[in-house]
């Protein structure tokens, strides 16, 4: 029985990889931060691609901004805060934690300079904020878990709802309403003025002592369809351990060993059994996968130290890059460049997985210069004697004058 399963696995793996080219990676950048008492087992760090910059929240409680084109540092700031959740971007600013004087607050920073613009009253942002008309809507920790509306121009909270652990789940922001989690799989609706909306359901709970109607499901798709636990199980997705990414046309769901892509009305647009990609039959539970970037036909995934580019429309593996050497903590893909934080040393790396001639020439010149620095040419005695003779001749000429 074990032999048959292994043969089935090997055959599926071989068929999927058939005709797929192998791609190598060229290291084009490595940070050189000196960490004190670095521990790979407790690494907490994050990165985000911010227009022409890379923001790297390192293990030393600093954020470093790197220019993508020149690969030169732009600025660095000490925040006293580090997290596996990257900064949230908005216009020419970003939001992240700031710890000083014994307390943690969410702060708004200038993207171009790193300067702190203002502090908000919240301890942390629990999900990615939604911005509209100068206002920020988000779930936060602030004397418990809350859904809040905050006026960025007036610097004041417009309204708040106590939702406890529901703050750990990202709300769905619709044109006319916010659909937020009220703990467990219970969801309620409010408008953007904070007015609770009635739903077509008999189930209810209480928020701030007010009775509110809730519906029970796991999450909503990009087109507002409810996803139930049985639907996930049927499609080999763990109902308790999964991540979701939505675009205008698709919903991407990733669990430990399965990718599911849904189109309109929950129609299956594609799927991928990750065991057919990763060669090892056993998965590392500590190496969590991630949905990186998506488009209408393909998706970039990170899974078990493998970077996967998959055409879900045609069920075709386009690329598979082995990142085991760098032992990634977090990975981002930006065009043809891979940015990652390594668990080995906590450093930020930039990899070019398909260098063009210009990049190849630049890397060659850099390597030659480094080699010359590390391997200086031996001194030529004849040149030394010639230099001494020239100096003596010049000295004699001056003496005659």
From TrEMBL:
<protein>
    <recommendedName>
        <fullName>Pyrrolo-quinoline quinone</fullName>
    </recommendedName>
</protein>
<feature type="signal peptide">
    <location>
        <begin position="1"/>
        <end position="24"/>
    </location>
</feature>
<dbReference type="InterPro" id="IPR011047">
    <property type="entry name" value="Quinoprotein_ADH-like_sf"/>
</dbReference>
<dbReference type="InterPro" id="IPR015943">
    <property type="entry name" value="WD40/YVTN_repeat-like_dom_sf"/>
</dbReference>
<keyword id="KW-0732">Signal</keyword>
């Amino acid at each position: 029985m074990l032999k048959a399963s292994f043969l089935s696995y090997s055959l599926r793996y071989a068929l999927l990889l058939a005709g797929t080219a192998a791609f190598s990676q060229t290291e084009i950048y490595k940070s050189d931060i000196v960490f004190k008492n670095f521990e790979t087992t407790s690494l907490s760090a994050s990165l985000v691609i911010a227009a022409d910059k890379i923001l790297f929240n390192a293990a030393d409680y600093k954020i470093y901004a790197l220019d993508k084109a020149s690969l030169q540092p732009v600025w660095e700031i000490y925040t006293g805060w580090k997290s596996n959740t990257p900064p949230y971007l908005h216009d020419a600013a970003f939001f992240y934690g700031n710890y000083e004087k014994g307390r943690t607050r969410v702060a708004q920073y200038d993207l171009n300079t790193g300067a702190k613009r203002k502090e908000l009253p919240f301890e942390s942002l629990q999900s990615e904020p939604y911005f509209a008309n100068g206002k920020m809507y988000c779930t936060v920790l602030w004397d418990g878990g809350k859904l809040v509306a905050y006026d960025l121009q007036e610097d004041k909270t417009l309204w708040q709802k106590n939702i406890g652990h529901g703050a750990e789940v990202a709300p769905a922001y619709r044109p006319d309403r916010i659909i937020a989690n009220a703990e467990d799989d219970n969801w309620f609706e409010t408008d953007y003025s904070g007015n609770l909306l009635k739903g077509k359901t008999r189930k209810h709970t209480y928020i701030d002592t007010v009775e509110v109607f809730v519906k029970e499901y796991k999450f909503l798709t990009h087109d507002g369809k409810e996803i139930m636990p049985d639907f996930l199980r049927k499609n080999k997705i763990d109902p308790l351990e999964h991540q979701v990414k939505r675009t205008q046309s698709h919903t991407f769901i990733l669990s430990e060993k399965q990718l599911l892509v849904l189109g309109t009305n929950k129609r299956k647009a594609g799927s991928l059994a990750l065991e057919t990609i990763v060669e090892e039959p056993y998965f590392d539970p500590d190496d969590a996968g991630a949905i990186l970037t998506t488009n209408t036909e393909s998706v970039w995934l990170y899974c078990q130290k493998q970077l996967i580019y998959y055409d879900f429309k045609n069920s075709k593996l386009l690329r598979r890059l082995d990142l085991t050497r760098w032992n990634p903590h977090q990975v981002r893909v930006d065009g043809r460049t891979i940015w990652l934080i390594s668990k080995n040393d906590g450093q930020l790396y930039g990899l070019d997985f398909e260098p063009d001639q210009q990049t190849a020439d630049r890397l060659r010149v850099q390597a030659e210069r480094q080699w010359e620095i590390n391997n200086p040419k031996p001194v030529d005695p004849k040149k030394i004697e010639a230099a001494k003779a020239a100096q003596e001749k010049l000295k004699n000429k001056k003496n005659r004058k």
